[in-house]
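Hi, here's the filled form for the chain we discussed.

Project: internal
Contact: R.S.
Residues: 294
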Amino acid sequence: MHLGKITLIGVGLLGGSIGLAVRQRRLADQVIGLVRRSSAIAECEELGVVDKATRNLGPAVKDADLIILCSPISQMRPLVQEMLPFLKQDAVITDVGSVKGGVVAELEPLAESVGAHFVGSHPMAGSEKVGATAARADLFQEATCVVTPTARTSSTALALVNGFWQALGGQLLTLSPSQHDDLVSRSSHLPHVVAAELANYVLSPIHPPEQARLCANGFRDTTRIASGSPEMWRDIALANRQHLSRVLGVFLEDLAEFQRSLDEGDTAAIEEFFTQAKRRRDAWCHPRGAGSLE
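And the returned structure, exactly as it came back:
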């Protein structure tokens, strides 16, 4: 795959990593990055994550073959509305957002209105770190990259987006927007809520100062993702609130069941709780036929 111009709308961890990967693999003649701060222009160019950074949306997307939205979800619609007059015919827009239902429903018709195409996608890769300085060219290597076409999706645009993520080393998974949002509400969004609440509760100033000194590696590992961008996770939680609220309810019911077992001193139930969790996680980490991961 080789494109003339790729534009990144936002050059943080994900946008920067895409830029590095594209430039290292020589997948485009030019990689342009749209940034919010003037100081980020020199930083992004010095880091090599883009060929050129700018704060001007029109020139950034003009003549771009592929535009990748790496902004918070709440900013995507206004950004696309603003770029519409500058898009060339058959330009393809995709995104890296963690919620697909509302994003696809809003952006697909907007792109179509000017003869462009929107195809939703979500690479399952990232970190609690933010900013272009955290970018890695191998971030998407072997990562599951979900693509969410609809009945209206152009086959040519879909092939371009699929080929792009594969060229970055991703493993494709095709889902409908609603399927995607249901699944990630459990595997991605719920863990962030849990990690955030653990950090909020355990590290609350209402506890004695010695509390934080007793938070060791287990607490650090479990709450790592709570250090992610609050702005991004606010948008994700609100955009996927129906699915997330439902799975939170089930999660709380399961915790209440464990609490009842604890109150009743039910040794067998408590052991089974931990045994089942270990068995399921070990099977996920070491699937049969995959060999050792150590």
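Let me know if anything looks off before we file it.
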